[in-house]
Amino acid sequence: QVQLVESGGGLVQPGGSLSLSCAASGNIFSIGVMGWYRQAPGKQRELVATITRGGSTNYADSVKGRFTISRDNAKSTVNLQMNSLKPEDTATYYCNAQYLLSYTAWGQGTQVTVSS
Q1: If we measure between CA atoms, which residue out of 83, 87, 111, 106 comes closest to residue 96?
Q2: 42 conformational bin, left if phi > 0, alpha if psi -120 to 50, beta if neither
Q3: Cβ neighbours of residue 57 closer than 8 Å, sequence gap 6 or more
Q4: How is 23-71 classified by DSSP, letter by letter?
Q5: What pLDDT digit, counting tens, does each position of 38-58 carry?
Q6: Cα–Cα distance for residue pair 48/94, rounded to 1 Å
Q7: What's the pLDDT tens digit per position in 61-88?
């Protein structure tokens, strides 16, 4: 079992920055890819960014050049640095982890609001 807890959400102005953090616990040594997803009101959850244990990253086109995902395997944490925030970035952000090859863990979500 893997548990994920997000932190760092909040209210920011357009053009501002925010950093999200996710702490993993449990069977952390079985974790492979980790990532961030987001879901805005009335929309489906979408992938924001992913990162492998080796540091390879993948980003949604909408956040390329603005967001940076990173992880610290020793601390079992993953971070999402968000810069140049836009109102359309407003959403609930969820941490995600793949573990035991085929299982998926989700955090409870943290709200990011960019106004107005």
Answers
A1: 106
A2: left
A3: 49, 50, 51, 69
A4: EEEESGGGEEEEEEEEE-TTS--EEEEEE-TT--EEE-TTTTTTEEEEE
A5: 999 999 999 999 999 999 999
A6: 10
A7: 999 999 999 999 888 899 999 999 999 9
CB 31 within 8 A of CB 94: no
Q: Are 23 and 116 in contact (CB under 8 A)?
A: no
Q: How far apart are CA 66 and CA 60, in angstroms?
A: 11
The CB density around residue 82, as the number of other CB atoms within 10 Å, is 25
Residue 30 has pLDDT above 90, yes or no: yes
Q: Are 112 and 20 in contact (CB under 8 A)?
A: yes
Predicted pLDDT of residue 83:
98
Let me know how long the chain is. Answer: 116
What Cα–Cα distance (Å) separates residue 31 from each residue in 1, 16, 81, 87, 114?
10, 32, 21, 32, 31
Supply 80's token pair.
Answer: 């999402």
Distance of alpha carbon 35 from alpha carbon 22, whole angstroms: 10
